[in-house]
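DM from R.C. (forwarded with permission)

"hey, sorry to bug you on a friday — could you get me a structure for this? deadline for the figure draft is monday and I only need the backbone to look sensible"
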Amino acid sequence: MRSNENTLLLGKKVVLVPYTAEHVPRYHEWMKSEELQRLTASEPLTLEQEYSMQRSWREDTAKCTFIVLDAEKWQARLSTTEESCMAGDVNLFLTDLGDPSLGEIEVMIAEPSCRGKGFGTEAVLMMMSYGVTKLGLTKFEAKIGQGNEPSIRMFQKLHFEQVAVSSVFQEVTFRLIVNEHERQWLLEQTSHVEEKCYRDGSSESH
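My reply, with the result:
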């Protein structure tokens, strides 16, 4: 999505940056993992296919992607690359043509050392806040594999309610309606987030 290509969101634990060509090699290494392929229902791609996918995602008006960076590593870096700070990604899919206010959200904390630290929770909150304030979303859905207990617990903690189970796809669908009460709660949870201008691996105050 072009609308977020110059946006950096700085949180306490994570930094969200647009998915650029610089991030592709690390992302490609992650997606060789059979566990991640299973959790994300993905097929392995060649590196060239991954670069092509990155370019198509950037142009896709129905897909908003941020790479999740470890904020502590990112803020401490001097000579290290942004790629070395990568923890995962978070996505919004605006695929319901009949309801432009609905976004399907998914998060992946791919780096094993970054799991269990609350990175996924903050990344989802930041992405939902972005979706509400910048994209006009008022409803979110999350489709999670039935065996992915950590993700199920996380979305339940974020006020999502289970609305469907698919035995065919072995996934559970959760939904959150962002009424005024939920909107205020969401904005409070993300009041610390700073928006900055992103320029391929660097940032300047917005």
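R.C.: lifesaver. The helical segments are 24-30, 34-40, 47-59, 71-76, 119-134, 149-157, 180-189.
me: no worries. Residues 7-193 form a domain with the Aminopeptidase fold (CATH 3.40.630.30).
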